[in-house]
Amino acid sequence: MTPFGIRVARLLERRGAAVTLAEPGDDTLRRLAPVLGLHTADLFVFAGRTLPDDLAPAELTGPWDVESLVAWRAHELDAEGRARLRDFVDGLPARPVRRTTPFPSDGQELTAGTILRRLLANRNLRVRNSLLTELGAGPYMSTATYRMALAERVPLSDDYVNAFARTVGIPVLELAVLIDREVAELPWTGSRPWPRDLVELAWAARRLDDEQLRAAMDHADSLRPRPDTDG
Predict the structure, then answer these.
(1) Which domain of life is it from (predicted)?
(2) 31 Cβ partners below 8 Å, 6+ apart?
(3) Inter-axis angle of helices 26-36 and 3-14, to 10 degrees?
(4) Residue 42 in contact with residue 20, Cβ under 8 Å?
C-alpha cells in the first residue's frame, strides 16, 4: 500500500469503514471523496494529483482572488447579507474552467506544507495572515512567517495547522491524518464564532472567473449598510 493509501485507510478506519488501497486512480478518488466527507478536488490535492478541468479552480488573471470577496467584503456583512451574497454567487452561471497551466503546477515536493498551501489555492486563496487569522484564528504572525512554517523553516506547529484546517473547513484531526502529522485540536480563540458561512462561500466562489468575481464583490458592496445621513 502506498503512503497515500495508508493515510486514506487510516481516515476510513477513523470514520468506521475499512478498505485496502494500492494507488487509487482518479475514478477511485472520485468515489472515495464523499465517503471521506471531502470535496473531490481536495482529495486530488491530498493525493498529489493534477486536477481535471471539471474539478480545478478558475485561473484568475486580475488583481483579486477569493479572499477579496470573503475576507475583505463578506466578513463585514451580517448573517442576512452573507446569505444574500451566497445566493448571488450560487446564481451565477457555471462557466467552463479552461486553464492555461495545470493545477497544481508549482512542482513542489508533496510535503504537509505543500498540501496546506495547495488546499488554499484550490479555493483561489493565497497564504496571508489576514485570511488565516480571520477564518482560522491563526497566530498573529506575519504572512512571511506563515510561509516559512509551510516550508518548515520554522516549526509547523499545531496552531498553524488548526488555522489552515478551519480556513478550508476540514476537521483538523482528519486533516492531520491526511498530511501524516500528529496534531492536537485547539480551541477556537477568535473574537467572534468561527465563520462557517465564509469558509463555505470561499468554496462556492472558487470557480468564478475574473468577471464573475468582480460582480460578486460589487454585489457584496451593495449589501453593506448605508450610513444614515439624515439630520
Answers:
(1) Bacteria
(2) none
(3) 30
(4) no
Long-range contacts of 108-112 (CB under 8 A, 24+ apart): 110/48, 111/152, 112/156, 112/161, 112/179, 112/180, 112/181
Q: Percentage of residues in the chain with pLDDT exceeding 90?
A: 84
- The amino acid present at 23, given as its one-letter code, is E
pLDDT digits (tens, 9 = 90+) for 83-107: 999 999 999 999 999 899 999 999 9
User: Is the whole-model pTM more than 0.90?
Assistant: yes
Would you list the domain boundaries of the chain? 61-222
Q: Do residues 83 and 197 lie in contact, with contact meaning Cβ atoms separated by under 8 Å?
A: yes
DSSP-assigned letters across all residues of 151-191:
TTSS---HHHHHHHHHHHT--HHHHHHHTT---PPPPP--S
Please give the grid coordinates belonging to residue 10: 487510516
